[in-house]
Amino acid sequence: MMLKISDLHVEIEGKKILKGLNLEIKPGETHAIMGPNGSGKSTLANILAGRDGYEVTKGEVIFEGKDLLDMDPEERAREGVFLAFQYPVELPGVMGSYFLRNAFNAVREHRGQEPMKPREFNQLIKEKAELLQLNEELIKRSVNEGFSGGEKKRNEIFQMAILDPKLCVLDETDSGLDIDALQIVSNGVNTLKKEDPRKSFIVVTHYQRLLNYIVPDFVHVLVDGKIVKSGDKDLALHLEEQGYSWVNDNLSA
Amino acid sequence: MSTDNETIENFTKQEYKWGFYSDIDSDTVPPGLNEDVIRFISAKKEEPEWLLEWRLKAFRKWQEMEEPSWAFVKYPAVDYQDISYYSAPKKKPELQSLDQVDPELLKTYEKLGIPLVEQKRLAGVAVDAVFDSVSVITTYKEQLEEHGIIFCSFSEAVKNHPELVRKYLGSVVPYTDNFFATLNSAVFTDGSFVYIPPGVRCPLELSTYFRINAQNTGQFERTLIIADKGSYVSYMEGCTAPMRDENQLHAAVVELIAHEDAEIKYSTIQNWYPGDKEGKGGIYNFVTKRGICDGANSKISWTQVETGSAVTWKYPSCILKGENSVGEFYSVAITNNMQQADTGTKMIHIGRNTKSTIVSKGISAGRGQNTYRGQVKVMKSAENARNFSQCDSMLMGDKCGAHTFPYIEIRNPSAKVEHEATTSKIGEDQIFYCNQRGLSTEDAVSMLVHGFCKEIFKELPMEFAVEARQLLAISLEDSVG
């Protein structure tokens, strides 16, 4: 088991957001988390990454046999948890390649490896850019500064490819993307999946659309802080046709 | 989980690494200021009569002046009678080589990482080292002399090149200029002197390192740089002081003169002791720096990285007199803990087609207060003058302050003046983003701050840029990783 979330309860400023969430992810699996606005999808993504401001009142999250909630955000990242942000922030003046090389070497150091030399690293950048059909010019600019919505999301995928995490959490990666950008991003994810079949993904999304491109092994419907229904990719299609009220109706029935 | 503010707070607890004291036998006059002290200093330095007279005129003027209070800084009144105005390491007269320098003194500079030794020749930097009140050694003099360049201590210049000193001293900053400059004119003890002859491009970076060592002394140095027609010089200045509980005064004057087609690049890394976390001790840095672009097509560029001092009051300025002359001011000022800085520049446009650029980056952390104060003045004669100003402030935590006071005075309708200002905060979001990629908070802050200051660092000579980056990191980071 790569990730095991048990009976997770989370509050933000006293407001209960997650109310007993359970989820198990094995290596190589892709799980989609769907749900209406305010159901707690992004909270789940943020709690896995360790963002401040969330209080876990009950439950646990075990990642690769370790207590994830006990780790600082940077430690989780170094252990192999990657969050592709819904709204990637701008880091003015911080050059993308410099940022990424430092992050990359922080991960390597954690794994007991020597830092990679700049020249080798540049080679890696080239390879990954080619593999993902991304323009490496992106990382010669300040991180996300002045990027379009699509460029920001592509940059997230690029970073993901370089840092080589075990578990990738994609938080509403499709929001604000046109169909071309959506294809580039999902092609990137699919390529990474193919390259390393042990990588696991959690795809958080409001719409089924993204799942046409990144095909999940499991779909979970999150309503009011709990997973109320799980199924395969067809569940997403049902949701698309019937809307989230269908789940609610089914529940109360 | 700690909040973002706590993290930043932890991080801005800094240690000052240059706070040691060197046990050096020195000649120090008892505290107090009167005409006798000035006569003593002048006699000690074997000065000509005209210079003593100049000092005395300044002193008499100073006695009528009041300490300025318009700056956005607060500090207890300075007792000018409680300061010793002269302190010098006891030394043999006329040092011929480094072998004759007090080894303890050399050790001090070694600790500071300043290349005085000949092996450091490859560093390509000529150094004048000022210890307390006097210049102790100037390196590479002979090599520079081959080009006709004069680079020596101010005292030597008075002895060996009196005509130059007499012609230019006080020509940019008159002895009546302001309270601190006038005090300096009366009691200055040493400093650096540079003259670049016509058409010469100075082959080395020139550099002066100032060190205050003795207790209860003030440091009043005077720097005079003259770039004759078509010449070029890049000059760097660095400074440190031991950690002491009481405040010490540093009131320097720097005058730059750029003749026709000449260029002076003046870079400062100011790292005087800033005081402890509660604001005890530290240097009062009250400095007057001004340059005149006297000839057509001349250029003066000030770059400063201000990380030290308890209180900083400093406005390196340019008088753009020559046609097509250019003035630049690039500044990074950091205030952490209880530090206060009121700094900026003045650009006075007199000649036609004169251009000035101001880029100021203020970083406030802890309970620091950081003020940008700048004046752009376009005189009637300055047809077609241009100015661009950019003032960016960065706040770390919620107990510090950033303030901007731009003064713009235009007397010629053809002038084009632009002013941009931004204030940003190192956001929790930015730090979290970096953390999520595996970077520690410390590295994240350091990256963000460097990103913020990048425009300025690229203006620094290479030797200095590395130092500036390290200094910045130390100024803002906790020693704990």
Note down, in words, how this protein is organized.
- The complex is a heterodimer of chains A (253) and B (481).
- Chain A is of the alpha/beta class and 253 residues long.
- Chain A has one domain (3-252): Rossmann fold (3-Layer(aba) Sandwich).
- Chain A is built from 8 helices and 10 strands.
- Chain A has a 6-stranded mixed β-sheet with strand order 6-7-8-3-9-10, with helices on both faces.
- In chain A, β9 and β10 form a beta hairpin.
- Chain A is globular and about 55 Å long.
- The model of chain A has no long low-confidence stretch (mean pLDDT 90).
- Chain B has helices spanning 4-11, 35-44, 49-64, 103-111, 141-145, 154-160, 162-168, 179-187, 428-436, 441-457, 462-476, and strands spanning 26-28, 87-89, 125-131, 134-138, 150-153, 192-196, 205-211, 222-227, 232-240, 247-250, 253-258, 263-270, 282-293, 299-306, 311-314, 317-320, 326-335, 340-349, 355-364, 369-378, 386-395, 401-410, 416-425.
- Chain B is an alpha/beta fold and 481 residues long.
- In chain B, α6 crosses α7.
- Chain B has 11 helices and 23 strands.
- In chain B, 23% of the residues lie in helices and 34% in strands.
Break the fold down into its secondary structure elements and pairings.
The complex is a heterodimer of chains A (253) and B (481).
Chain A lengths: L2 E10 L2 E11 L4 E5 L6 H9 L5 E9 L2 E2 L5 H7 L1 E4 L11 H15 L7 H15 L16 H15 L3 E5 L7 H17 L4 E6 L12 E6 L2 E6 L1 H10 L1 H9 L1
Parallel strand pairs in A: 3-8, 3-9, 6-7, 7-8
Antiparallel strand pairs in A: 1-2, 1-4, 4-5, 9-10
Chain B lengths: L3 H8 L14 E3 L6 H10 L4 H16 L22 E3 L13 H9 L13 E7 L2 E5 L2 H5 L4 E4 H7 L1 H7 L10 H9 L4 E5 L8 E7 L10 E6 L4 E9 L6 E4 L2 E6 L4 E8 L11 E12 L5 E8 L4 E4 L2 E4 L5 E10 L4 E10 L5 E10 L4 E10 L7 E10 L5 E10 L5 E10 L2 H9 L4 H17 L4 H15 L5
Helix pairs in contact in B: 2-3, 3-8, 6-7, 9-10, 10-11
